[in-house]
Amino acid sequence: MPDTCTNPMKYSDQQLIEAISNGDPRQRDWALYQFCRQDSLRGWVLHYVENHGGNVEDGEDVFQETAVIFDRNIRQGRFDGKSTLRTYFLAISKWHWVTYRRKKGSVSELKPEHYDGEVESVDAQVFESEKREILEKAIAELDTRCQELLQYYKLDYSMKEIKELLGFSSPEMAKKQAYRCRSGLRRCSIGIPICSKH
Amino acid sequence: MSSRPHTDKIEAFLTGRMPPEESRSFEQALAQDEDLAIEVEMQRLEHDAMELILEKDLKSKMAKWKDNPPPNPFSEPPAPLPIPQPSTGSWKRWLPLLGAAVFVLGGVYFFLWSEDNTPVSPTAPANAPFDPMKEQNPVVSNEPTKEEQPFAKPTAPKKPPNSKEPTSQKESAYLALAFNEYETPSFDSGQRGSDTEKSVVEEAEIAFNARQYTKTIELLSKPEAGNESQVRYLRGHAYFKLKKYQKAATEFELVAANGFAPNNQDAKWYLMLAYLAQAPAERTNFLKMAEEIADAQNQHARQAEAAKLLEQFNQLK
């Protein structure tokens, strides 16, 4: 991936996908930054949201949430390559704006042309929202080191790499700690008091 | 891990790494085994939570990117320094540059050796000035514990085939400059109290003084480690010694942001050095912090040193 700081985007979709999904957070950050900093991309999302009943603040929220979903889908291999990354990003933002409005209670204003895909049911959204709240509380119970470890784990780092990054004495120790952190997370998620203590 | 007999299998199932055939039979097993189904849901919950951690982290990074873009991991090394040509007849004007290059390379070489290979001399001052002679006689007695050795030459986690090692001349020069300014603090907890009375932080300080930086970090990760700014300050130094400058900067940043922290001023100074060690990627942050410290209005104890360092930095440009 060559160095380029020009705008618009000069990296190929393949280069971006590789950088986002190869597990190196530095490359992921750089690729997402390069992709998301395109003025035309942000401008399109803001314009779309404003033209569909939102304001600039909503547009910024949708843009950020879209970036998060975009990153997750690329990492998890959900992007099927049938469109460009740009089209994919914009489709996510349109879909997200629909769900965002639902959450804000503007359901009646929705028209079929406002979205391309299937929209979650209200029940499912409420469930997701409650689950998210519970998980956020559980995460907050963990110490920052555990949170960092679980980030690396989720990014598919090997135990050897985690050991080196976090200064464990061996990959086995890193594995043990990862298990403890995950167990803590589980206990906190199901409401066990003092859950993060190992 | 014995309490979760199917962990690896479930992990493969949830992350899509299970072969399709096995995945189908696993789904059938799930339909019949309620305990297994619950375990899968619990592990799915863990994954959702981990995904949420990544999401929060990304959002917080994105908020900072506007003013502080992430470092480019693909940066090309800068053009090599010009080599003086004797035939021009004006070779003397290159002497200062040559001297600086020798100094810098000496610093880097010494730096690579000094972290784990130089002995702890009971007579040498903790903050001995840079001595280029040491590079000729790297002493290997009193070697660090085996635990420290994997970090002697840390490896980046994953790199693409076309990635470059961060060893360009300019990066080395910044690194050497940071190293020359870095003074290893000496913590005095080793001298007070008996073994049974020592707190986790005191144990960590002892480990740090003994150059057991990995152990220092491990000790400080214990929940009962204590005062956050104290823990972060010490951990920042341990990361710095392990050449993990980005992590060191993160630790120092938090102490530097806390105006009530006892080590606040020192944290700013070391944060600046951690940025310098990552230059040119962190050049902007380095300059911002150095200028803040060098500003007489801020009455920083190291104001003059920061001003001098800025001069040296500008000369390297």
Q: Which runs of chain A of at least 5 residues are low in confidence (pLDDT < 50)?
A: 1-8, 107-115
> Rg of chain B to the nearest angstrom?
25 Å
Sheet with the most strands, sense and barrel status of chain A: none
Q: What oligomeric state do the depicted chains represent?
A: heterodimer
Number of helices of chain A: 9
Task: Provide the low-confidence segments of chain B as ranges.
Answer: 76-94, 109-166
Radius of gyration of chain A: 20 Å
Mean pLDDT of chain A: 81
Gap between N and C termini of chain B, in Å? 54 Å
Tell me about the biggest sheet of chain B?
none
Shape of chain B: elongated
The SSE order of chain B reads HHHHHHHHHHHH
Count of helix runs of chain B: 12
Helix % of chain B is 40-55%
- Chain pair forming the biggest interface: A-B, 54 and 50 residues
From the helix content, strand content and strand pairing of chain B, which structural class follows? mainly alpha
CA(first)-CA(last) distance of chain A: 42 Å
Judged by helices, strands and strand pairing, the structural class of chain A is mainly alpha
What do the pLDDT scores of chain B average to? Answer: 70
Helix percent of chain A reads 55-70%
